[in-house]
Write a structure and sequence with these properties.
This protein is α+β, with helices and mostly antiparallel strands. It has three helices and six strands. It has a six-stranded mixed beta sheet.
Length: about 130
């Protein structure tokens, strides 16, 4: 399996509408995956619920990685996600991410902090909407 990164994961999860969500999650995240976003922990099932909801909101978008570092199983990046929703609103969110990778190259644990850079104040919750 090819080692994943945030660009591949986000593109498959949100910006490739024809790709089945379960397939995208399996491709990039281990069965025991955990994530903490802005202080709130979720397991893989809650993460899938979050992605399911985001897919109903997101029309299009892109990701720009500003910094990306790997050191063995450790991965860190700073990226900006631009999302245009079906309601026409566009927002940009900057994300600071630290992760642990499994031996098979998938994300096993992610801890991230998000910052809404531009967009409607209600879009600040897109990182945790369920």
């Amino acid at each position: 399996m090819t080692t994943t990164d945030i660009t591949r994961a986000i593109n498959d999860l949100l910006f490739t509408p024809g790709l089945d969500l379960d397939e995208a999650v399996e491709r990039h995240f281990t069965p025991d995956y955990r994530q903490r976003t802005d202080g709130a922990w979720s397991d893989r099932a809650a993460f899938v619920q979050h992605m399911t909801r985001l897919r109903t909101l997101v029309r299009s978008g892109d990701i720009e990685v500003h910094d990306e570092l790997r050191d063995g199983p450790r991965y860190a990046d700073r990226h900006t996600v631009t999302i245009t929703q079906h309601n026409g609103r566009t927002s940009r969110t900057e994300v600071y991410l630290f992760a642990r990778m499994a031996p098979d190259g998938r994300f096993q644990c992610v801890e991230e902090t998000t910052l809404l850079v531009t967009g409607h104040p209600d879009d600040g919750n897109l990182g945790s909407v369920k």
